[in-house]
Design goal:
2 strands; alpha+beta; two-stranded parallel ribbon
Length: 88
């Protein structure tokens, strides 16, 4: 972040950060430290926090059976599509 000429912090300011990940914790609260860290990074860089999408998966393809995550993904991305310009 301190490499001369990169201006990383300035380039990230105003952008939106989302956390989209699979986890193996039986209790999703165990993922909170990671989410808290990402929220702090978002604040530090002057970014907008877009939210998180967590899906349980311990084996390949298992996240596809997490219907709650699929529903949350649909809602999250519908909101994103309505508010964000499409990147080219």
């Amino acid at each position: 972040m301190r490499v001369p000429g990169v201006d990383f912090r300035a380039r990230m300011r105003g952008k939106t950060l989302w956390a989209i990940c699979a986890h193996t914790a039986k209790d999703p609260a165990e993922v909170e430290p990671m989410l808290g860290t990402l929220r702090l990074i978002s604040d530090y860089l002057g970014m907008h926090w877009g939210g998180e999408l967590l899906a349980y998966g311990n084996r390949p393809g298992e996240v596809l059976t997490d219907q709650g995550a699929a529903d949350r993904a649909r809602d999250l991305f519908a909101g994103v599509a309505a508010t964000q310009p499409v990147a080219s």
